[in-house]
Sequence to fold (361 residues):
Amino acid sequence: MNPMVDMAFLLVSFFMMTTTFKADLPAEISIPFSKAQLKLPDKNICTITIDAEGRVFIGLDNKFDRKQMLQYVAQQNAINLSSDQAELFSLLSSSGVPLEEISHFLTLEGDERKAYYQSGIPISKENNQLRNWLIGSRLSNPNLRFAINGDGDASVAIVKRVFDILQDINITRFNLVTDTEIDASES
Amino acid sequence: MLPNLDDIEVEKINVRQSDNKTDKRTLNVDMNPMVDLAFLLLTFFMLATTFSKPQAMELMIPAKPKDELVEQEMAVKESKTLSIALQKDQVQWYRGITDPEANVIKYDELEDMLRSVNQNTDGLVVLIKPLESSKYANLVDVLDALNYSNIQRYAISDLSDFDLTLEGNTATNE
Fold:
């Protein structure tokens, strides 16, 4: 049995070293394919997720940045959040809750919060909340890079609107998250 | 100095002999719970891990024009433009703006088409025209083809009157 146990522990340690956990996204995203060869960085990255329904979520990789981003956005919109609520927000890898609901959302308990339907950050011209979130994220970390993690089935109109918002606050360089295309002819 | 092997051998035999005299029990540790735990962890990490890191496609968009500069936006010769309307399984493309001739090709033929057009035209500008039905995946396909055919200038633009007359096109405007 010993060789088997040795191997099991070897594999355990290997997986423990190499693992990076899947981000807990509130929406299922199937990203489109491309031939791009650039690896997405792990650190200093702000991910704008667009799901197939067109809901928009924002996520930062760093917990402290998330807290700072929330503070900026709350301050801009005169929303009072307790320190518990801010703490809770900093534990969520991404958020797509409109500001009108965020105070209520952050009082929910574990399972209730998971089941809560996040309707996405509003991006319309009249109610452009994404802009504030992006400014907040940038203030929290000046080295931040932006990535758009869009579902292949998302409407181009929504994606274009997100591009326009990014352009509006002078973020002119960003990444589109894609999956490597498997070329059938090569194999 | 290397130790003398004969000496060591003798010592070991001596130790064994004394052990056998005092204690005959063998130490038996039940390893099963530990192994169970090891395999539990192994399965957990195997399931939770993400191996394929996603790739990133770099995209640069022009900076926002300052108000006074909007007037003198660059004009592009019609003959230098190439428009691509994104349909579900195919793209419609045409050169120029007034009374163009529309062609239909598949997404995987796009790259070759763009490459040959780019070779024959100096300062080609590609206009990407998303329709209402267009999916983000279509846009990524086109951007990918543009990147790989070395076309530097492209824009996502609104539909012209001609685009609206093309069969199967509906406006994306809100």
